[in-house]
Design brief:
Length: 226
C-alpha cells in the first residue's frame, strides 16, 4: 500500500521493483532518464501483474519488439534528464492520478499501465496499438483489478486477530516473498487479509500462510493459529 504525500500516492513494493528494472533498462539504452517506454519494458521483463492478464490479447515478446522498434526509429526522442536529482534512477512515475481517481489507497503498476494506454501518444500505447485493440487491453486490466478488489476470496489469508499490517510487518512480508511472487492485501475490512500471487497471476493460500508466518516469526509475533 502506498502513502499519500500532498495528494500523491507513493508506489507499492512491486512498483518500486519495476522502477528499478526500468532504470537499468534506461541506462543500458543510453537514456538520461526513464520514461513510460522503459517502465513498460520493465513490466514486460517482470512478466507478472498486470501484463500477465493482457497476454491472451497480445504477445508480450512482440510487444517488446515493437517498443524497441520505436526506440530505434529516427523520430524517437529520449526522455529529458530531470532538472533536479530524483530517486529510483530518475524514472518517471506514472498512474498516480488514475489511482486517486479510482479511489485506491495504493499506487500500483496497473495504474501506470492504464495511464500509458490512455495517453495514446506514449511509446507503450503506440507499440500495443499495432498488436491489439487498446480498449480491449484496458478492459482486461480493469476486469482483473475489479475482480481482485471485490473482496477476500477463498484463497485469502487473514492476519491473526488484533494484528494490523504495520510498517515492520509490511517490510517483513516483502522480505519473505519467494522469488517471482508478489502480494496483495486489504485493510479496509475489520481484519486485514492478504494473498501471495504466483508468477502465473494466481493466489496461493499455502504460500501466503508460509510467507505470513515467516514474517510474523521474524518479528517475534504470534503466528497463524497460535
Amino acid at each position: 500500500m502506498g502513502r499519500v504525500f500532498d495528494g500523491v500516492l507513493s508506489p507499492n513494493p512491486h512498483y518500486y521493483l519495476i522502477m528499478g528494472r526500468a532504470a537499468e533498462i534506461a541506462r543500458a539504452l543510453g537514456s538520461p532518464a526513464g520514461g513510460a517506454e522503459h517502465l513498460f519494458l520493465g513490466m514486460l521483463h517482470d512478466g507478472r501483474w498486470p501484463v500477465n492478464v493482457i497476454s491472451p490479447l497480445v504477445d508480450l515478446g512482440h510487444a517488446e519488439e515493437a517498443v524497441l522498434g520505436i526506440l530505434d526509429s529516427p523520430g524517437y526522442s529520449r526522455p529529458p534528464a530531470p532538472r533536479f536529482p530524483a530517486r529510483n534512477g530518475d524514472v518517471q512515475v506514472w498512474g498516480a492520478r488514475i489511482a486517486l481517481e479510482m479511489g485506491d489507497s495504493h499506487l500500483g503498476v496497473e495504474h501506470a499501465l492504464l495511464a500509458m494506454i490512455r495517453m495514446r501518444e506514449t511509446v507503450p500505447a503506440r507499440a500495443l496499438a499495432g498488436l491489439a485493440d487498446l480498449d480491449a487491453v484496458e478492459a482486461a486490466v480493469l476486469a482483473a483489478k475489479n475482480a481482485a478488489a471485490s473482496g477476500p476470496s477463498e484463497n485469502a489469508v487473514f492476519l491473526p486477530e488484533g494484528q494490523g499490517l504495520d510498517a515492520p510487518l509490511h517490510r517483513a512480508i516483502v522480505g519473505a516473498l519467494p522469488e517471482g511472487t508478489t502480494y496483495g492485501f486489504n485493510i479496509a475490512e475489520e481484519r486485514t487479509w492478504m494473498h501471495v500471487i504466483r508468477p502465473d497471476g494466481r493466489p496461493d493460500p499455502e504460500v501466503t500462510r508460509e510467507v505470513l508466518n515467516n514474517a510474523l516469526a521474524s518479528l517475534g509475533r504470534p503466528a497463524l493459529g497460535s
